[in-house]
Amino acid sequence: MKNTILAIGFLWTCIAFSQADQELIDVVEGEQYRAQQLQDFQTNENTASYDLLYHKLELAVDPAKHYIKGEVTTEFRALENTDTITFDLSDSLEVASVTTEEENLSFTHINNELTITFTKGICEDATQTVKIAYEGTPNKNASGEGFVTTTHNNTPSLYTLSEPYGSRDWWPCKQDLNDKIDQIDVIITAPAAYKAVSNGMVISETKDGALMTTHWQHNYPIPSYLIGIAVTDYEVFSQTVERNGHSFDIVNYVYPESKDKAEEYTKVTVEIMNLFQDLFGEYPYKDEKYGHAEFEYGGGMEHTTISFMGNFSRSLIAHELAHQWFGNKVTCGSWNDIWLNEGFATYLSGLVENHFDGEQDFINWKRGKIADITTSRNGSVYVTDDKLDNVGRIFSSRLSYNKAAMVIHMLRQKLGDAVFFQGIKNYLNDEELAYGYANTDQLKAHLEKASCQNLEEFFNDWIYGEGYPSYDVAWFQGEQNELNIKIDQSQSNRKVDFFEMNVSFLVMGAQGEEKYITIDHTTNGQEFAIAVDFEISDIIFDPKFDMISKNNTIGIDIEAVAELEIKPSIENTVNKTTFIDAKK
């Protein structure tokens, strides 16, 4: 039996969150708040009967008026023989007509569904184009999503925010996670005093008296919730990204009263963009642009090519930019897999902290994440089906953001940087996934192929399983050149019977020597002998906070030492050892 001394070096009774932590909380709370509609939404069965090819949104708006008038032209391909198709459209908007080039079509509009009937029917694989004319006063949602009119500095402002199901509040669309639109044109007519912002590139701006019509075009596949518009008295400035002989602009649309600060704060975007390109491949929309549009909201929204920003903090810039790869280029194929969007965006904000502020700040970032994750013994990264009616669970900062981010880091530690980043690049560039949808198993398959490892156990424990491990470590230096360690583990949740993990230690010498070691821990009671060519004064468990754990203990294995011929030097080592638990 060993005598374990509880660690006293890192006892945490209160975690002081950094500014970046608070900014993430603001982002998550905003996403939880605006996602309340998810609880009432059921995907229309009829929306599965066709494949969207093209949308042209022609919209007339005025930020001073909570009203929209539009014509939406949609081209689609039928996936089965049918004589009807259905769009999602709020009952607060009135449909004036639905037409093809040949005829007016009959329709019904009830229960937020617009169902269109085709006189002659449509055959499987046939393409058809319809134009829907509509107008009305969009719902004013307490969650701040959908179609929003507000003010900044007493100036009228308008924006849309559609994740997850707010698109139907301002245009007839298909809201799901299985069908991206191949191409869109967004043509906005608004008072000429304002600038109108949307996805992609500006094709033209045409002034007609007191009105300005701005034509935006986006030529990459996009889901409905990532289409957005914003209109107010924006001022515009740009930065340019130069890479491999190709350049594109980062275009910023900001309030006049914010311009000076925004110009200073957004400078960092270019370096963050290049960091992400180095790690994950070229910016997915480099043939168009990236940009920011300021809006009256806490946090941000990663609309494709144009993130809407409630502020210009570095962590928010990083989080929303990261989504252009993780969430926009490759989108989670169900809300069960939301961690594929939010976990990666969160982890990339941590990589930005490491890049700009150094390793110690990144260690502190990880420590803060672990402290939050381990406030509960329960909860999986993957959102189980029985939790899909719980918006707070889907957008849980502890699980979908922080735990997912740390699990991604643990995968990186397990696989090594070269294999990890190559596997992620392969995932992002998979022809079946790029500019489409993905699930957890598809990411796992790419990492397994890149590493030639079976990751079933890891994913079962850390993605689908719940909780975290606690370690009980006993060590002694029986010979001058050998460290002996025995490791036991318990689990916070019985849904995981054992976390097979690489466990790291920093071995510290009496004369200031240091040695970093990693042990592959696979069973309880496992013993290890490691060559160490100095007298050991201390060992620190997981010194860089690379692993989720809590309530760890570490100490001299008194019983093992007693079996040896005790020498004064060993007794002195025992007496002067400081016992440190880097996770408690």
Automatic annotation (TrEMBL):
Which Gene Ontology BP terms does the record give?
A: peptide catabolic process; proteolysis
Q: Name one GO molecular function term.
A: alanyl aminopeptidase activity
InterPro entries the UniProt entry points to: Aminopeptidase_N-like_N, Aminopeptidase_N-like_N_sf, Peptidase_M1, Peptidase_M1_aminopeptidases, Peptidase_M1_dom, Peptidase_M4/M1_CTD_sf
| Top-level division of the source organism's lineage | Bacteria
- Per its UniProt entry, what is the enzyme's top EC class, as one word? hydrolase
Where does the Aminopeptidase N-like N-terminal domain start and stop, copy by copy?
Answer: 54-226
Residue ranges of coiled coil: none
Q: Which Pfam families match?
A: Peptidase_M1, Peptidase_M1_N
Got a GO cellular component term for this one?
membrane
Q: Which reaction does it catalyse?
A: Release of an N-terminal amino acid, Xaa-|-Yaa- from a peptide, amide or arylamide. Xaa is preferably Ala, but may be most amino acids including Pro (slow action). When a terminal hydrophobic residue is followed by a prolyl residue, the two may be released as an intact Xaa-Pro dipeptide
The record's section on Gene3D superfamilies has: Neutral Protease Domain 2 (1.10.390.10), tricorn interacting facor f3 domain (2.60.40.1730)
**UniProt keyword annotation of Amino-acid biosynthesis present:** no
**Which keywords does this Swiss-Prot/TrEMBL entry list?**
Aminopeptidase, Hydrolase, Metal-binding, Metalloprotease, Protease, Zinc
Required co-factor(s) are: Zn(2+)
In this chain the Peptidase M1 membrane alanine aminopeptidase domain maps to 314-462
- EC number annotated for this UniProt entry: 3.4.11.2
Protein family (similarity comment):
Belongs to the peptidase M1 family.
**Protein name (Swiss-Prot/TrEMBL):** Aminopeptidase N
**What organism, scientifically named, is this protein from?**
Kordia algicida OT-1
